[in-house]
Amino acid sequence: MEKLLNRAKEIQIIFFDIDDTLRVKDTGFMPASMPQIFAALREKGILTGIATGRNLFGVVPEIRALNPDFFVTANGAYVVDKLDQIIYQHALPTTVVSELVAWLEASSSEYAFYGADEVVASAWSDTMRAAIAPIYGQLPVNPDYYLTHDIYQMESLSEHDDQLVLPEKLADKVRMVRWHPHSSDIVPMTGSKAEGVRQVLDKLGLSAANVMNFGDELNDVELFDLGGLSVAMKVSHPKILEMADYITDTVENDGIEKALKALNIL
């Protein structure tokens, strides 16, 4: 523990996942203490950021109200500061999106497009509703959305999502990250929350040793591998629990506050 406390002294910025980290995905519950925690971090001169698989559209008002300094969204593909100034963006090439659409349709899979601040579905079925509605509500439907908008991430959605395998012509361009039994994020091959966080660190002149991360799912793997201090929520995926420097309690039991106090950040 002494080594962790010494490393914690180097922390200058903290990134938080949203779902089941800051806020319970299925119920929307967020501890009443969170605004005070973010305010206390600001008073100590510690910057804050959101690092999420959601895009800006999915950063709900109560998260915005915490006034974080940075938003790393769409698994690192679209990054802005608190003034909505773009720090980094990496859209998928339209040719790649077109190939993905053709493959997903041939695989009897629905899909969703992530624009900068909009999520659009190929259809609105029971499978789509079960996976997406708890996060975004009902989505607009437009399978041709990608023809007129930049796409930063896609999602596959089907009852057989765990059986989908990228064709060879796409496997070196994008990768799939499971986040739901019926859905996977489809992101650029080098895309991850870690890449978005690196862009912020470079802008600030900070190193990985200065960053602390809170997360719970497989799209946090690269971020936990980045360096600094990584804190997993108690309900995290087993791989995240294995990678974590520190494991804290659940959202409902004030896990973030407990970890920040245990590590002498607050």
Characteristic key phrases:
266 residues, alpha/beta, Rossmann fold, Hypothetical Protein, Haloacid Dehalogenase-like Hydrolase, Chain: A, domain 2, 2 domains, eight-stranded mixed beta sheet, five-stranded antiparallel beta sheet, 10 helices, globular
Task: Explain the overall architecture.
The chain has 266 residues and is α/β, with parallel strands linked by helices. It folds into two domains: 2-90 and 191-262, HAD superfamily/HAD-like (Rossmann fold); 94-188, Hypothetical Protein, Haloacid Dehalogenase-like Hydrolase, Chain: A, domain 2 (2-Layer Sandwich), CATH 3.30.1240. It is built from ten helices and 13 strands. The chain has helices at residues 2-8, 34-43, 61-64, 94-106, 126-136, 168-171, 193-204, 221-226, 238-243, 255-262; strands at residues 13-16, 47-51, 70-73, 78-81, 86-89, 110-114, 119-121, 153-157, 174-180, 183-188, 211-215, 229-232, 246-247. The strands form two sheets. An eight-stranded mixed sheet has the order 5-4-3-2-1-11-12-13, with helices on both faces. A five-stranded antiparallel sheet has the order 7-6-8-10-9, sandwiched between helices. The protein is globular, with a radius of gyration of 18 Å. The mean pLDDT is 94.
